[in-house]
Amino acid sequence: MKNLVCILILTLYFPFLFSQNEKKPSIYKVLKTKNTIVIDGKLDDADWAKSDVRPFNYFYKKTTNYQHQKTSYRMLWDDKNLYLFFECEDTHIVAQETQRDGQPFFDDCAELFLIPAPKPLNVHIALEVNLYNAKNDILYVNDFEKGKDIVAKWYNPNYEVAYQIDGTLNDNSDVDKGWTMEFKIPFNILWGLDRAYPIQKGTKYRFLALRQDRNVLEAEDNKRAISSIFPINNIKEKGAHQPEMFGMMELVE
Questions:
Q1: Residue 247 contacts residue 210 (beta carbons within 8 Å)
Q2: Which of 168, 49, 160 is nearest to 108 (CA)?
Q3: Are 60 and 227 in contact (CB under 8 A)?
Q4: How far apart are CA 130 and CA 163, in angstroms?
Q5: In order of start, what are the domains of the chain with their CATH numbers?
Q6: pTM of the full predicted structure?
Q7: How many Å apart are CA 163 and CA 182, to the nearest integer?
Q8: How far is residue 138's CA from residue 195's CA, in Å, rounded to a whole number?
Q9: Which residues of the chain have pLDDT under 70?
């Protein structure tokens, strides 16, 4: 029944709901790899050195007094998978959530929002993972009814994540250096949504990569800052889930 509801949502919303204020997005060129990428949270694979490295220059303190900590981001692809690599400076590494479909976005967390089309459609896939490898993977529908967004949390795709921590998790008595996180995301998590824009050289998809930064251990204090690869206008009023703010990835060889 859940799968049927999901298919109905995707069928109804993906084909025609998109922003009327579409602008020319920034493009990240994703290099194709012909080699095996070992998912271990390390930059040991040679093809990572060839990939386009982008900083997360856009920083949003929200209600915190945090300083902007550096994040570097990379992507690769092959015929079956999309690969991501986050490299994050972090003086206080914090994670609280341990459950699937919980709230890892309140922790130090890496995120990808993805639309398998070059248009800012009103439905996107969101993958959010913290440093306990607690995953929150959702289908996010903008303006579902009367301006309200909805989140489908029963979307649980299989993808591989590994991380490395240079410091001590949940110990703010010292100063940490940072963490890395590496993703291997099979394209089959798109559930056939790539039929219009199949996985091949030249294909373009809308996406946004983000990093959540939390520095405090208190369970009741969920304050954190956000940095992103592309700017997010009106984030205070609308949050980060704004498809018209997403940039573009292009699969290249």
A1: no
A2: 168
A3: yes
A4: 9
A5: 2-252 (2.60.40.1190)
A6: 0.91
A7: 6
A8: 20
A9: 1-23
